[in-house]
Amino acid sequence: MQKSVSKTDDGVKISFTGVVQKQQIVKMVENCSTGQCECMSDETKKKITNMQVDGKDGDVALNLSGDIAPEEIEKALSNSKVLNS
């Protein structure tokens, strides 16, 4: 799986390509929104106002809205148990 993080007008977009299932990204978002993830700091979580998953297996986009930096999200992705298991 390849991950690409880029800044958007509303926040940050993460593009996942290659061997990635949309449900895997949905699960990661569900974990984050229910407080079950430990991948990002509480400070970063508070900055995110919305998380939207789009696309299909093999080409999934996750749009995060809020005053967040791509570097914060890259760090969280490297800590994600869902993505790195």
Produce the secondary structure layout:
Layout: E1 2-7, E2 11-17, H1 22-33, H2 42-47, E3 48-56, E4 59-66, H3 70-79
Structure report:
- The protein is α+β, with helices and mostly antiparallel strands.
- The protein has one domain: 2-Layer Sandwich (Gyrase A, domain 2), CATH 3.30.1360.
- The chain is 33% helix and 35% strand.
- The chain has three helices and four strands, in the order ββααββα.
- The chain has a four-stranded antiparallel β-sheet with strand order 1-2-4-3.
- A hairpin with a 3-residue loop joins strand 1 and strand 2 (11-17).
- The radius of gyration is 12 Å and the shape is globular.
- The mean pLDDT is 92.
Please tag this protein with its features.
single chain; 85 residues; alpha+beta; Gyrase A, domain 2; 4-stranded antiparallel beta sheet; 4 strands; 35% strand; globular
Record field, number of beta strands:
4
Tell me about the largest β-sheet.
4 strands, antiparallel
Going by helix content, strand content and strand pairing, the class is alpha+beta
Distance, first to last CA: 12 Å
Low-confidence segments:
none
Number of helices: 3
CATH topology: Gyrase A, domain 2
Indicate how many domains the architecture comprises.
1
| Name given to the CATH architecture | 2-Layer Sandwich
Mean pLDDT: 92
Radius of gyration: 12 Å
Helix-strand pattern:
EEHHEEH
Assembly state of the chains shown:
single chain
**What portion of residues is helical?**
25-40%
CATH class: Alpha Beta
Identify the overall geometry: globular
- In terms of DSSP E residues, the strand content is 35-45%
Question: Strand arrangement, largest sheet?
Answer: 1-2-4-3
